[in-house]
Design goal:
The longest helix is centred in the last third of the chain and has 69 residues. With 473 residues, the chain is of the alpha+beta class. It contains nine helices and eight strands. The N terminus is likely disordered.
Length: 473
């Protein structure tokens, strides 16, 4: 009696706790997982990092400031000629320029160079100070390797493809974790539904047992009826215990994704079976694009192609043309004399530089390696595409088969319920046996569980399709 009273108190307390629990929708749970799950936070941080690297890829086209200076103090007295011997030479040189590489592969620099100097000569005892300032424009263009930005564009495209491939794989990991969260949510909902079902089933079995006990006390039933009904009650209690154990595992999985290290779930969640008709008739599987892991493999193919292109361009001959236009302006004065010096006027230079690596055999071996890498990535992408297509077809088949099985399971449950009601009616009239009633009870339980499992299977299939085959653009 005390045990029953304690059990009743526990049940009432648990019910009161549930009634005060916060209701958490599926999306609400997913949002919590996105906020609290360490694995998801790590993946999101990696996604942010790759996005930052994507922005850095275009850095090659950014403006660069280059500046430098040098100072020389020469008192060695080394003569420049037989007539002039410097006693002291002080020289400060500086330059600053802004450089940009354009998409055509053209490198343009705009800058300013200058020199400040002072020379003292003997035996003339003359001093010469000057300040030379030269604005300049410098242009450089590769006519073979980087004509129209060929090698630069290929390198940038390869880096972009690598980053995009990494992003797709990270997105696939994120989708997998979110799917795991959704399945954990629905699994907990399913486990709680099974507990409710097992409680209802046990209550029905106890009614049969109590009814048989009263009949036995009136000498209207055999002892075998009592034993049979008691065994059925014990089996119901065992099934309920197993349902509680399964629900405990579900609660732990539910909390693990929230980084909670206990099994207490302080939320009331959606009942999955209430949306059964929506999955049976309303929802349909949609494939809006390839799965993210396949898109990642396709980006790797692009990367290998661009890498081979960049290698072929940069490993061969090159002809570089460069030119510089300087607007000279120099002023100076011979100290201890009345003579001033002023020099000005533009200066132009043009240069060509040809280079050709002579390691022809090595270059062929290297190029063969890049070709093999491209073929490997293409084969891997083909295999991923075939596998993903087969998995999608199987997912659709599973969806249609699960809907068909669920429809049959619902019909079976209806028939079993009618049979169970009829067996109970016959037992009350003395035209059936306890065994037949209990057997009909068990068959009704199995039929009901088949319906619940069918609904749960439909939900899990839909969530897989929704996780991996939507919004992969």
């Amino acid at each position: 009696m005390k045990k029953k009273l304690l059990y009743a108190v526990i049940v009432v307390f648990a019910a009161a706790q549930i009634s005060r629990a916060e209701f958490l929708t599926l999306q609400g749970y997913v949002d919590l997982v996105l906020q609290k799950n360490s694995d998801l936070q790590s993946v999101q941080a990696s996604i942010d990092a790759v996005n930052g690297k994507l922005a850095a890829i275009e850095k090659v086209y950014s403006y660069y400031l280059n500046a430098g200076a040098s100072y020389a103090d020469d008192r060695s007295g080394k003569p420049y000629s037989f007539q002039i011997e410097p006693e002291k030479m002080l020289n400060l040189s500086y330059d600053a320029s802004v450089t940009k590489i354009f998409e055509t592969g053209t490198q343009v620099s705009l800058g300013l160079s200058g020199t400040i100097g002072e020379y003292n000569f003997i035996p003339s005892d003359q001093s010469y100070k000057f300040h030379d300032i030269t604005p300049f424009v410098k242009v450089q263009q590769s006519l073979l390797q980087d004509l129209n930005g060929g090698s630069t564009k290929a390198s940038i495209a390869k880096a972009r493809a690598d980053a995009q491939s990494a992003l797709y794989m990270l997105k696939y990991q994120k989708q997998s974790i979110v799917l795991k969260a959704k399945l954990a949510y629905w699994n907990l909902s399913y486990s709680r539904t099974v507990i409710d079902f097992r409680k209802t089933s046990l209550a029905r079995t106890k009614k049969i047992s109590d009814w048989n006990q009263r009949r036995f006390d009136l000498d209207l039933a055999e002892k075998t009826d009592i034993l049979q009904s008691r065994a059925a009650v014990k089996m119901g209690e065992l099934n309920l215990k197993l349902a509680f154990e399964s629900e405990l595992k579900s609660r732990r999985n539910f909390n693990v994704l929230l980084n909670i290290d206990n099994a207490n779930v302080n939320y009331e969640i959606e009942k999955f079976a209430t949306n059964a008709s929506e999955y049976e008739k309303g929802k349909q599987l949609e494939k809006k694009g390839a799965r993210a892991d396949v898109l990642s493999a396709l980006e790797k193919v692009k990367s290998a192609q661009y890498e081979q292109e960049a290698q072929e361009k940069t490993s061969g001959a090159d002809l570089v043309v460069s030119g510089q236009l300087g607007l000279n302006s120099a002023k100076g004065a011979l100290l201890h004399s009345s003579q001033d010096i002023s020099v000005g006027g533009p200066a132009f230079s043009l240069a060509l530089r040809y280079s050709l690596p002579l390691d022809f055999k090595l270059r062929k071996t290297i190029n063969d390696g890049y070709e093999a890498a491209k073929i490997s990535s293409q084969k891997a992408a083909d295999a991923a595409s075939i596998s993903e297509n087969n998995e999608w077809i199987q997912l659709v088949d599973n969806w249609e088969n699960a809907k068909s099985r669920l429809a049959i399971a619902v019909e079976i449950r209806t028939v079993q319920y009618e049979r169970h009601e009829e067996e109970q009616n016959l037992l009350r009239k003395g035209r059936s046996t306890t065994y037949m009633v209990i057997q009909s009870e068990q068959d009704l339980d199995d039929a009901t569980l088949n319906v619940l499992q069918g609904i749960y299977e439909l939900i899990t299939i839909y969530e897989q399709a929704d996780a991996f085959y939507k919004n992969n653009d």
